Each structure stands twice: as structure tokens, then as C-alpha cells.
Amino acid sequence: MGLNKDESLPQDLNSSGSPEKQSGAFVRFLNIVERLGNLLPHPITLFAIFCMAVIVISGIAGYFELTVTDPRPVGASGRSEDGLIHVVSLMNAEGLRMIVSNLVTNFTGFTPLGTVLVALLGVGIAERSGMLSAAMRSLVMGASKRLVTLTIVFAGIVSNTASELGYVVLIPMAALIFHSLGRHPLAGLAAAFAGVSGGYSANLLLGTVDPLLSGITEAAAQMIDPDYIVGPEVNWYFMFVSTFLITGLGALVTEKIVEPKLGKYDPSEANIDLSNQPMDGVTALEKKGLKAAGIAIVVLSALVALTVVPENGPLRHPETGLVAGSPFLKGIVAFIFICFAIPGLVYGKVVGTMKRDKDVIDAMSHSMSSMGMYIVLVFFASQFVAFFKWTNLGAVLAVSGADALNAIGLTGPLVFVLFIMMCGFINLMLGSASAQWAVTAPIFVPMLMLVGYAPETIQAAYRIGDSVTNLITPMMSYFGLILAVASQYKKNLGIGTLIATMLPYSIVFFIGWTCFFFLWVFVLGFPVGPGAATYYTP
């Protein structure tokens, strides 16, 4: 159903059926971005190239004995006696030995690998049992007509805990729901797409993306502070509240900008027969299963609370007695696994999708089978991150960049506006959140730490930039699928029309979310997550 990047796409048509003029600076900019993105190799190939580049550059820099002054205080962990950061060459016998002897441990010790796979085992059970799909359909189809737009955007955001479910299930369903209400189906599709992809980083619960990004951030932060720990929960406060912000902004853009622009829908534009489109509701058995799963979640929450809420709770920090730095937060991935797996199993038992232990095993196996590409990507990304750390190239770039920011006086919170914009721009051409962060984190996390900001805050800002341009980049992995669904409702719909439809969301999300970030972090002084610092002192 999806389209490959190299497949030809139909020409954009306006309402009169004539070709739209591809003019204007922004359209030309998007065309350039698309061409540049298509020139980029696959992210896996890109990381392999980066690994080779690091080796070569380290050899050249090592030959010329490139150094920078270490800004860390005397006696700090990892600081050399001469107070300098030296580039270490990998283009010699010692470098070759280091690469060969650590190739496997670089991969197996890469923090995001294990945490993401463990979390997905639980999500796989919940998804395969049908619980997540039923919960989403119950949420969206049970909404009142006045709240349907808000509900669809909200459902899109929370669907991110279940990988591709929002793209495959919710977006086509939203188009059908809008059409059944006499509204433009592309407006429904746009609202769902805005929630699923534009609100990618926001959510009420921790999902697989949280340990994925935090592991990369931690590795980058340890270039400056070897003992720095970044847990999966460090952005939870900010992302929890951002869920409601993006829900409101998404619904507002849909009803005030996108839907009026689309106008009244003409069914003759469809490529499919709209008179016989099924829109399955939630059956009585599924409702019974959801109720049982809800009870299971309440029981699990109560049991977890017993280990954390009391002052002497076994999962509090054994020395300080606090939740910050506690085994509960350090082991949050285990709770993500449990809180998806057990309710999913209960639901499956009730509705009959999980009758035997083999069904549970098959569900977990299926979730792992879909991760083959990710595992290969992690292999090369982990080597790149390790090489970057060994050579000290990341630290040298970070110190040089921090010195440049200090020289021009750009060390205040305004630096985050440029950082978010840069992340959004890179995302136009490198759509994978993990791939982009694995490339940029080793440079910008240490750089902004040296300017005085904590990795947790830097990661929260990155997540804004990574999310808001997902809607307008053809490099996003599901963009072809969205285009294929949209073309069912409008003949000859092309990539330009879809991007133009989603552009208002990207603009409003960027402005609104960035302003909210500044309000939350720098005006109100709230932490972005449990125990998360805002500032860092080198």
C-alpha cells in the first residue's frame, strides 16, 4: 500500500483539475529538500560512511596533534593531566586493535538496543492481542461529534506507544469518520496524521522512544561527564503536558485552517466506492476485554505504588529514600514491559486471541521480527558513537562550538530556538528519530552542556524539532502510506498537495511548542522530567 521514495507520484491538481503551479520560495525549498533527501544513502549506509569518516578524520587530526583546552575543572573525571583534549587517531595499529576487540561490545552494550527490545516485547503482546486497536477504536468512535477532532488528534498522540498502529489503523479510520459525519475526509486524515507524527514525542505514558533517545543522550553526555546518567523518564513531565498542548493546537488548525481551506468534499473526487466503506466499532466482547484490561492496569498501578509511594518503599533510592535516582526510575523499562504485557494478556484471554502460551510467544516473536532493520541500524550507529567518543572528536567539536557560542554571546535560552530549528531542518532529510539523534547528539549535547545546559533539557528541545517537521518530509518512512490513503479520497493527489495540507500544523506546532518549552523551562522553572536538571555546571 505504501510508496517507495523512487516511485513516480501523480502531479498535483487544484480544485479545477488543472496542474498547480510549482512556484514560490517555500515550494522550491521543499523540492530542493526532497531532491537532497533522495540523494542521501540509506541511514545504515550513512552510519557506515560516518564510521569510516571518523577513522580518517581522526588520523588526520592526530597527525597534526589537534588539541583544545579542557574546560572541566582540575581533578574532574576523564580530564588529562596537561589540561588538554587530544584527538586520538584510529588510523594506526592501536586504533585497529581497539576497533576489532570492541566491535561486539560496542553493539551489545549500546543502551538503546536492549531497552527498546524489552519494551517492545510487552507492546507486542498488547498489540497482537488486539487490545491497542480496540482501545483506539473505542476512544475515537465513542467521541461526541463536537469532540471528534480533539479525540482523533489525542488518539494519534497516544498511539505512538504502539509503533505503527497509529499510521496503519487510526489515520485511515479518521478519514472514514470525517466522511461519515459529512466532513472532508482529508481533514480527518490530516488531524490524525498531525497527532501521530507531528506529536510523535508527546505522550501520557513512557514508550519505546524514551529509552531509545535517552540511551543516545547518555552516551553523548558522558563525553563531558563520564558518570552522567540519563534515564528514560527524564522528559516525561514535559511530554505529558505537551500531549494536551499538541491536541489543542492540532484540533484548532484542523477546524480553523485546514478544513475551511479544503472546502466541501465532492465524493466524485474519490478513487474508491465511499458508499460501502466499513467502519467497525467495538464489539461487546471487545468492551468486556477492555474492561478486564483496565482492571489489570489499576491493580498493577496499585502494586507499583506500594513499592514507590511509602517512604521505605523497596524501589526508592536505598540511600536517600527519594524517587530520584531510584531503582524504580532506573528500571522503568521493566514497568513499560509489564504494563503492556499483562493487560494485553488479560484482554487476549477474554476475547480469545491469547488462548495458549504459544500465542503470547508468537506475539513477542512477531514484535521482534519487525525490528530487523532497527537492529542492523543500531550495529552501525553504536560503532559510530563509540568511534566518536574514543577519538575525542565529539569533545573537540563541542568545546570549539561552545567557544564560538560564547564569543558571539549566544549562550542564553535563545540558543534553543536555533537548535530546534536545526533539528527540524535535519529531520526533513533524515526522518528517523534515532538515526538523526545518533548523529547530532555526540556534537550538540556536549556543546550545550559546556554552555551550561543539562542533557535532559537538550533532549527535550531536540524532540520538538524532530517531531514538528515529520509532517512535511517525504523522507518520513510512512509518508508514502499516508499519500496512498489520501489519494483514495482525491484523484491524482500529489506530494505537494499533501505537504501543503500539513504545513500549517508544522508551523503552528513549531511556534506553539517552542514557546511552551521556554515557558515551562525558563519562565516557570519546571523540570522536564523526574529528577531532571535544567542547567549543567562543567
Automatic annotation (TrEMBL):
Residues 11-21 have a biased composition (Polar residues). This is AbgT family transporter. Residues 1-21 are annotated as: Disordered. It comes from Shewanella nanhaiensis. InterPro entries: AbgT. Keywords: Membrane, Transmembrane, Transmembrane helix. It holds the Pfam family ABG_transport. The chain crosses the membrane at residues 44-64, 107-126, 147-178, 236-254, 289-308, 328-350, 371-390, 410-430, 437-455, 467-486, 498-523.
